[in-house]
Amino acid sequence: MKILNLFKNKVKFPPEQLEQLFYAYAIPILKNKNMMTTKEYCQHGNTSCYLHSISVAYYSLRLANVLRLNYDLESLIKGALLHDYFLYDWHKKSKNHRLHGFSHPVVALKNAKKEYVLNDIETDIIIKHMFPLTILPPIYKESILVCLVDKICSIKEVFYFGLQKIYHIELKINLYTTI
Ligand SMILES: [Fe+2]
Ligand SMILES: [Fe+2]
Predict the structure, then answer these.
(1) In whole angstroms, what is the distance from residue 89 CA to residue 94 CA?
(2) Residue 23 C-alpha to ligand 1 middle, in angstroms?
(3) Ligand 2 centre from 88 Cα, in Å?
């Protein structure tokens, strides 16, 4: 049965190893010039789009690891980091992004495709992450995870709680990306 393939007793990585894997796959994307500009764009509360993307990718990976899912680690991290790659400040009024909540997954996908080759999982993560605002639901376990974790991270950012760990991760990433 397909549902049984979701859990294949995939090895659960210890926290340090999981973090190292996260950095290995995330740093090349986070070093990107356009991605760096997202540090300037506020997402929720005082959290930038850059930090929000790191947060969603990191906690999606943590959750997949805890659940021992048989998942595509690289696609999960890449799709999650690019899920809000719309590259503008949505708080500033503009006729170009009047319906930001509905339209930004399409803009993010378009921007991501200009710079990366995306597989079906990564595409689904980006285009469906706003479900149920977007009508079609995510169909891969990686995109379902990101859709869920995105909402949890957004609530944490709006209400300023549980952000210490992600500030710590960002500090480490800053060290790696400025070398
Ligand atoms: Fe989004
Ligand atoms: Fe998001």
Answers:
(1) 9
(2) 22
(3) 13
Could you tell me the distance, in angstroms and rounded to a whole number, from the CA of residue 62 to the centre of ligand 1? Answer: 20
Q: Which domains are delineated in the chain?
A: 13-88+97-177 (1.10.3210)
Q: What is the amino acid identity at position 54? A: I
Kindly indicate the confidence band of residue 179, based on its pLDDT and cuts at 50, 70 and 90. low
Ligand 1 centroid–CA 145 distance in Å is: 14
Quick check: pTM over 0.70?
yes
Cα–Cα distance, 70 to 19 (Å, whole number): 18
